[in-house]
DNA sequence: CATAAATGAGTGAGCACTCACTTACATAAA
DNA sequence: TTTATGTAAGTGAGTGCTCACTCATTTATG
């Protein structure tokens, strides 16, 4: 059985690789993420970060020289390292199951990645927010996430289509529909302020996607 | 034939009702919206607004006493007046067509409202951004948009279901899927920075939704 | 000529960021 | 086991700058 690292662990590992970050620095990163998610990056002061981290303001600036660097330190590893790893692990996991039906694949994908999405909605919020504003960040995300999706998801979809289990719609549209359906679900849960709803609706998502992506 | 007001006109009407707003004030509103969409609300200074509007900084403050009031002036009519009116018009338009098939309804809905979405993506961006940050704005949107959707879309869906043309999934999920599919399409177009793609993909959206929302 | 609209230099509050200094810790000599 | 010493981590009062907002004055309008 392939191990399926969760995000928290993966993020910790990435941080650990970065030459032993001291405890207070991790508190700073955690406090930053929490506050950015709650209030937005631009509305969060470095004093607030220091206070929530239980740290002096100067400490916030020890490792990262500007507030922007701090933001980048949170977002970049998420996009360039954590996400690829998690997608790769999913692909491996699927590869071990032979002759999946469309329904089985979707159920596996959604249950697996939906949990990921919900757990990391904090980062997701911040990422979406900044992507709406910064064109260069959009570019960076496209150039990282795009290839990952193509490498991990497209082969699976192609195989499924060869078994006459999948719609003839282009792969990129299939991915758009799957990802979009999941993303919408988190956003609605966030809108309603109740993440229990998120889980309850998952069976509906699977049923809808299963039917919508069936071959004619 | 029912007139289908576009957003710009509707917005102008709402503004006109507000007791004759002078030309320069409209320039301020337009400049604000453009800048908020480009850079985000928090990253936009009142000086920038004044410059783009071709106006002194004091003028920005004549009608709206704070920057937040200015934002509210842009978002509130959109949510409370413009959106309801446009949804109402769509419902009326659909009501005139008897015995719609699911495909016809979806095609009408998506072509109609997708154009709306694309045209107003500027406001949409700002709205999404602020909703991710302000809990009270989320509340306001829910309490306005929710009932509108229920009143305009649910009856149409119920009728369709009575004709055995629609899935048994709950109405709120059907709406989630329709809206989410459209929203995802704008967001991807925005991500790729090419709104021509938005239109090209519409036939795919219709095909996917038509199939996904068919009865078993 | 009265009232509303517009101006833009000015103001003070709050913010990101700095830096001289203190504390914690590791290694090693006494 | 103490003491010395170098290095990295942490501190928080201080600084200068940006920005939202004001107001005395000027300009348009009916």
UniProtKB/TrEMBL annotation, chains A, B:
DNA-binding region: 45-64
One protein family per Pfam: TetR_N
Keyword field contains Transferase: no
Keywords, alphabetical: DNA-binding
InterPro entries (alphabetical): Homeodomain-like_sf, HTH-type_TetR-like_transc_reg, HTH_TetR, Tet_transcr_reg_TetR-rel_C_sf
Residue span, HTH tetR-type domain: 22-82
Keyword DNA-binding: yes
Protein name from the UniProt record: TetR family transcriptional regulator
